[in-house]
Fold Peptide methionine sulfoxide reductase MsrA.
Amino acid sequence: MFNRKPSALPTAAEALPGRETRPFPLAERHLVLDAPLEAAVPEGYQEAIFGLGCFWGAEEVFWKVPGVYSTSVGYAGGITPHPTYEEVCTGRTGHTEAVRVVYDPEQVSYADLVKVFFEVHDPTQGMRQGNDVGTQYRSAVYWTTPEQEAVARKLIEAYQPALTAAGYGDITTEVAPAPTYYYAEDVHQQYLYKVPNGYRCHAATGVPFPETA
């Protein structure tokens, strides 16, 4: 049975108040890639933010991509400042579980990252991913440059016919400018490195991108 959670985003009046600063400490370095977790994007590198269901498995997917410098998990796209995991789980913050990816565009393109994003989850499920139900599991692409937005929208347009032909519905992925990204608690960072047999929730469609996309 699916957990019963709100299926609509909260209004500002309904959202939890949050706080002015992060209420928990965070490790300094990535446990797998040995890169700074919170450092500014290095010169020549770029940043991408995605939401694709439970962020544990999502982060693992991206840290394995050649050319990715660092990853982290956090909360994005909502209202409540500096939320906790427990608050996000109530559906009253408006945030989705997100992955921040810092990458070298000389080694991996943004288009390649977007293709990975779409191919490892089902972007047609709305406020849900697999057995995880609620607004925190919605699919999202938060672009950091106009070029990223153009790429994301072009790939959505190219991918939809393939999904439709395979019997899937419309892509529900939220495409929006990158909002404030709030880091999740340290226990969630690189969770599947710490707990190799931990929960992986993603139900990929198995529909590859058209070769021309």
